[in-house]
Amino acid sequence: MSNGATQIVNRLARASRCSRLATPSAAKRYLSSAPQRQWSTPLAKTIADVINTAGPISIAAYMRQCLTSPEGGYYTSRGSTGVEVFGRRGDFVTSPEISQMFGELLGVWMVTEWMAQGRRSRGVQLIEVGPGRGTLMADMLRSVRNFKSFSSSIEAVYLVEASPTLRDIQKQMLCGDAPMEEIEVGYRSTSKHLGVPVVWTEHIRSLPQGDNDVPFIIAHEFFDALPIHAFQCVASPPSETIITPTGPTTLRQPLSSSPTQWRELVVSVNPASQMHAENRLEFRLSLAKTSTPASMVMPEMSERYKALKSTRGSTIEISPESQGYVQEFARRIGGHSNSKIPTTRKPAGAALILDYGPSHSIPVNSLRGIKDHKLVSPFTSPGQVDLSADVDFIALADSAISASPGVEVHGPTEQGSFLHSLGISERAAQLMKRAEDETKRKNIEAGWKRLVERGGGGMGRIYKAMAIIPEAGGMRRPVGFGGQVPA
Q1: What is the DSSP string of 360-414?
Q2: By three-state DSSP, how is residue 298 classified?
């Protein structure tokens, strides 16, 4: 190449389109003519960007972002802005916020189960997953403080909490001015009720698990907030396309010879052109156009789901995270189902689950939003609305039993029946007798009745209780599930 040609090429390189577009001034000159869509929340835009780039997402992914995203999730950000989540000034009221009796009686239940298991003198762990404001644990600790043999056996209180904001609220409720320090699994302070350590971690698997530990686990309105997948049974197509990590792939032969298959319900962006005064929702549910990894695996893991596969239009909801948590509960109580893992630990402890959902059927179309104590669409203002779905209690029971040979499951039973068996009416009578004035007496009465009543705004029928305890060959039932208080 001649010197002249070389100079021309060098000039072209310096003036190339790539180099000009790389400069800030040139980037500013490239503006899209498309109108900018206004989103209800910053998180809504983030979710929409993901969907527009990679395609529709599962309900589980949508719920996870809306509830726990560090960039505007409901539980991770609302408290930091001064907006309350729980209580009458929040979006919903839970049982512990209605009456102190709820937490007191759950504490009594733990004591009765400890008594039935031989009154271990040490190693008791009180574990709560999703502890909210800390109100339930505070009431439980005040209650068990009256049972000296049990309270002196408590090694520590463990709280599984992902929200830094809620962790700070819980610390103030349970520990007061005691200092908090960062430790390997999370954070630690000291209980103002019992003087034992209070430890926070983001997942229950991070908690210690020894041969002499006796875990008593409480999960109140925890599972309803865990992500779900939803599936619908449809006719199998003549050829099958599946979604893989590298994109859609068409199979030469269908995945199965079944005339029907499961398709996942996914979240997609609602086009701006389809939004109007009656429907301002930015997202919508639709049936996936092809099979997804989740639709090919999850509905095939249980005979309950397989039985519905022959019926077109059948819809089911599955929560893998819920099943994973309850399996962890079972293994901590009864040991591992894998015989290759050696252990000298004798099954001990218990888990008590209180939540809402059908007693025996598979939940369907239960995803809901809750805002200002009212039900709203789950696609309203992502990040500013609480999301929940019905709990599949039978799936939890099946998961617990399959995870450990050393446990058995009791329930579900209605919350009203459960609390009555623990003596809520007698406790209410005591508190009303001590009430200083008529207003307080009426508040106590209204509170305990709302917890147990089956109709109207009562929680007694909708909410259910389920217990996981050491396997006893059907020789005993825990209190609240047909059993009696140990002598």
Answers
A1: SSPP-S--EEEETTEEE-TTSSTTSSEEE----HHHHHHHHHHH-TTEEEEEEEE
A2: helix
Backbone torsions φ then ψ of 51, nearest 5 degrees = -65, -45
35, two tokens: 């109108």
Nearest Cα to Cα of residue 484 among 416, 437, 439, 421? 421
Q: Give the chain's end-to-end CA distance (angstroms, integer).
A: 103
| CA 6/CA 50 separation, integer angstroms | 46
**pLDDT, average across residues 408-428:** 97
- State the Cα–Cα distance between residues 342 and 335, nearest whole angstrom: 10
∠ CA 225-230-232, nearest 5°, is 160
Residue 35 has pLDDT above 70, yes or no: no
What's the mean pLDDT in 115-126?
97
**Residue bearing tokens 């025996």:** 360
Place of tokens 């106590």: 444
- Whether residue 204 is found in the same domain as residue 236: no
**Cα gap 54→195, rounded to integer Å:** 51
Asked if residue 18 belongs to a domain, the reply is no
Q: State the CATH number of the domain containing residue 396.
A: 3.40.50.150
pTM, to two decimals: 0.86
Is pLDDT of 141 > 90?
A: yes
**Nearest to 291, CA basis, from 302, 283, 299, 279:** 299
Please indicate, yes or no, if residue 412 is contained in any of the structural domains: yes
CA distance 397 to 96: 25
Q: Rounded CA gap, 152 and 142, in Å?
A: 13
Q: Which amino acid is at 405?
A: P
Secondary structure class of 283 (helix, strand, coil): strand
Asked whether the predicted pLDDT for residue 487 surpasses 90, the reply is no
Which residue carries 């005993």 as its tokens? 476
Is residue 190 within 8 Å of 197, Cβ to Cβ?
yes
